[in-house]
Amino acid sequence: MEPRVITITSGKGGVGKTTITANLATALALAGHQVVAVDADIGLRNLDVMMGLENRIVYDLVDVAEGRCRLRQALIRDKRLSNLFLLPAAQTKDKTAVQPADMVKICEELRSEFSFVLVDSPAGIEHGFRTALAPADEVIVVTTPEVAAVRDADRVIGLLEAAGKESVELAINRVKPEMVERGDMLSVEDVLEILSIPLIGVIPEDPEVIVATNKGVPVVLNNLSPSGQAIKDMARRLLGEEVPFPTLKGKESIFNLLSRWLRRK
Predict the structure, then answer these.
(1) Do 10 and 153 contact (CB within 8 A), yes or no?
(2) How far is CA 64 from CA 103, 107, 231, in A?
């Protein structure tokens, strides 16, 4: 299998992009692949906390880009899985400290050792987004089923198309089935109709995510977690398996009306 660089991004902050990156990396490692998660959110790093590796950081992405250490010195091996690594972001630098060309060079070097390079992009569409996007073979756009988040995702998808990224897929996070059934939340079908890109994951709202995050233990390691199972299903789809999605159709509601309005924009 050819090495794959996958950037996980979003238009809006707070939609669970970093949680999905940490857990997707862990799920792919559990499936036996060599995986590295790269935190490109310079100045606001959180991937290390999600993976429980915050106390092991010596060097970071900016140190590698600026030549203060070799790439291998900055990589942190996961505590639980010997085939999972983290390249942490710098906490104190400006987002412009790493340029798109630097990220391409670093990811090219990582391809020689890893089957999957997952890049956690900062939210938004500024410099950090362009840097995280530069090396990507594939992009996963994360949204929640809220009008503001979907609108921002639509903007990001437009930018990805303009940048010539052809493999762009959608992960819908924090879906609440009971709200969808009542018609109080956009359904998966609503979001797909608005954004018109292939679906790679549907992750339900799950209180276990907060517990797992606070403990620095990826939720995919909890076999009873519905969100953990959903992210394992995402990993299986990335590996080419056919895995069915849950059906969560909503009733006609103000959200359906808003979704139709968004589609006309």
Answers:
(1) yes
(2) 10, 11, 30
Q: What gap in Å lies between CA 87 and CA 57, rounded to an integer?
A: 9
Q: What mean pLDDT is reported for the chain?
A: 92
Side chain identity, residue 162: A
Q: What is the mean pLDDT of residues 171-183?
A: 91
148 exposed, middle or buried (CB, 10 Å; 0-12, 13-18, 19+)? Answer: exposed
Q: Which residue stretches of 163-253 are H helix? A: 177-182, 188-195, 208-215, 226-238
Domain ranges of the chain: 4-264
Name the DSSP letter for residue 64. Answer: H
**Any idea which architecture 4-264 has in CATH?**
3-Layer(aba) Sandwich (3.40)
User: Secondary structure of the chain: what % helix, strand, coil (to 5)?
Assistant: 45, 15, 40
Residue 264 confidence (pLDDT): 52
Q: Cβ(110)–Cβ(103) under 8 Å?
A: no
